[in-house]
Amino acid sequence: MPSFQLPHFNDVAILRSIEPNRFRTFLMRFDTHLRSQGFIIPESAVFTDAHLQRLIGNFNAHDGSTPADMIEALFHISEVSNDQGMEALLLVASKAGIELPEGDLTPADLALLIWMNAPDLLRRANCERIVHRFQSFYCFMNRMLEAPLFEMPAEAVLKRIEEHTDQFNRNRQRCGGAAVWMYEFGNEVAFLIRFGGSLKRDEVMDNDQCRPDIRRPVGYDLVVYNIETGELRIRADLVSERRFYCRLFSEQLFADPEFFEHEEIFNLDVIYRLGEDVQSPGIDLGITRVTLVEIQEVLLGEKILHVTLRSEAIFDAIREHNKRLTPNGRLLSAKFKMVLDNADEVTVTICSGNKIRVSRQVGIAAIDRWMIYIGIQSNGDGRL
Question: Does residue 380 form part of some domain?
């Protein structure tokens, strides 16, 4: 998925920010693997730059023998090793009753500490951060008139999702080893999916010597179901993956392979039909002002032409230049600047292919209500 590629620990400063004894305790869990790679963990917990550079090489150039929980730990620790992550981690540690050591802690310190005490808590903190960030998802509406009653899936259902994901990936010359974790955040249920990618063959430098490196990178996808609206949101790179998840979660959650339809749920042609009225904020929707600032369209013909109109206020600019929108093409995307009732500002980009990007994780419910009100998004009854 777009932002769920395994981040590499390639900065000595990140490793330096972890308390040495805690870092050594973490590494000792993987002592056998590290020894097989020629790395001996220092007895004194004094890590030189040479030690850390060698570890970075091991983290980034694994040969397939790297323990899965080591890769996963590095992924989640590096994802939340920042100021925003620190806030989530402190909350998680407080709720779980994890006793923090005296003295200052860096985000990487705290992330590693939580992972060693309760790995699932760190997974949850990272997953919640991604879900609530809501910057870029592909959205799919169910084909019923309203959101159905929803029962949280049992462990057996998650196991079947893992098995089907393994089969899907093996059919595409990837590998097995899929894992699924489920978390509930208010009206949303998030499924974090780990999978093995395609085989990579490369060359790496090892102590000034070039050697072949063969590995399968680890990736993470995210599927989020909104219990209140009945909408499925997916973060995955490929069209085939998004279709697979639509069908898989249709079958496993609702026993209906076509429950989540693959069709467009965003109708940007509303902009042609409404003109400036598409900027109406509606009444009591939570939005004070809406301004269209960019559209991208493709004009079809013997020669295809891609056109982008960009302005702080497109309709004002069109009027000033004696132009007008002509519905003789297909809109690919539209970008709106919105001012919410509490004066927060957010930029929303709606794209064909069911994709939406939000610049800030604020006013999401109000934006959904506005898109349904204006006619850009399906309201769940089969109409746009």
Answer: no
